[in-house]
Write a structure and sequence with these properties.
The chain is an alpha+beta fold and 70 residues long. Helices cover 17% and strands 50% of the residues. It has a 4-stranded antiparallel β-sheet.
């Protein structure tokens, strides 16, 4: 069983007509230090879809890549 706790809700990126949202949160997984997490969640966070979890360093690298693509 995977244990998680949303430590900080950073924002909603997109919401579907069915109520599922792509959210950016800071989450602890199985008691480990919190990481940035981008994934689909239902309205009450009782169900989640596939996502990606990033360290702060990886998130910074991603942000630089996205800023340089224009």
């Amino acid at each position: 069983m995977i244990n998680y706790e949303i430590k900080e809700h950073l924002g909603v990126i997109e919401e579907s007509a069915g109520g599922w949202r792509i959210e950016l949160n800071r989450i602890t997984w199985n008691g480990k230090p919190a990481k940035l997490d981008l994934r689909h969640w239902n309205e009450d966070h009782s169900k989640m879809g596939k996502g990606i979890t990033l360290t702060e360093e990886a998130a910074d690298a991603l942000m630089k890549l996205l800023q340089n693509r224009r």
